[in-house]
Amino acid sequence: MLHFDTNGLIALPAWSRERHPLVMRVAEGEPAGACAVVWYEFAIGPLGDRELELARIFLRDNLIEIDAETAELAAEIFNQVGRKRAFKTDALIAAAAIRADAEFVTLNREDFEPFVAMGLNLAKA
User: Fold this and answer.
1) For a FRET experiment, which of 61, 89, 90, 122 has its CA 20 to 30 Å from that of 74?
2) What CATH number did the domain enclosing 38 receive?
3) What is the sign, positive or negative, of the torsion defined by CA atoms of 10, 12, 13, 15?
4) How many angstroms separate the CA atoms of 97 and 10, rounded?
5) Among positive and negative, which fits the CA dihedral 108, 110, 102, 22?
6) Alpha-helix runs per DSSP H in 32-108
């Protein structure tokens, strides 16, 4: 499964035109998703016409809720990476990808590399 970060969803129109390997994996049947936090960030926009709808179709409505277990894992990994304020939201997004046992698609690999030691699997974009 591929779990998309906000910037991965933003890149989808260009990646689709380029037939990017990650888009092709989903087109060939691999599941894709995004957590509710990512979906919130993406929906804020700005978005072009139908981008929200097209992203939802691409993800096949696989929008992952943040439950108590994900929130607790996020708190744990946030504490493990040093409680830096900049990691608060990223820890929640990373925890959702870890719990989904997914490859995490982000263009900001450096922001998420601290979570690799806690089980985050960064996809090669």
Assistant:
1) 61
2) 3.40.50.1010
3) positive
4) 18
5) positive
6) 36-44, 51-58, 68-80, 88-99
Question: Could you give the number of structural domains in the chain?
Answer: 1
3-state secondary structure of 110: helix
Report residue 73 as tokens: 């894992």
Q: Which residues contact 119 (CB under 8 A, 6 or more apart)?
A: 98
Q: Where do we find the tokens 């509710």? A: 36
The token duo for 6 is: 């906000």
Strand 63-64 and strand 32-35: the pairing is parallel
Q: What is the pLDDT of residues 30-75, one digit of tens each?
A: 999 999 999 999 999 999 889 999 999 999 999 999 999 999 999 9
The answer to whether the pTM exceeds 0.85 is yes
- What is the separation, in whole angstroms, between the first and last Cα of the chain? 14
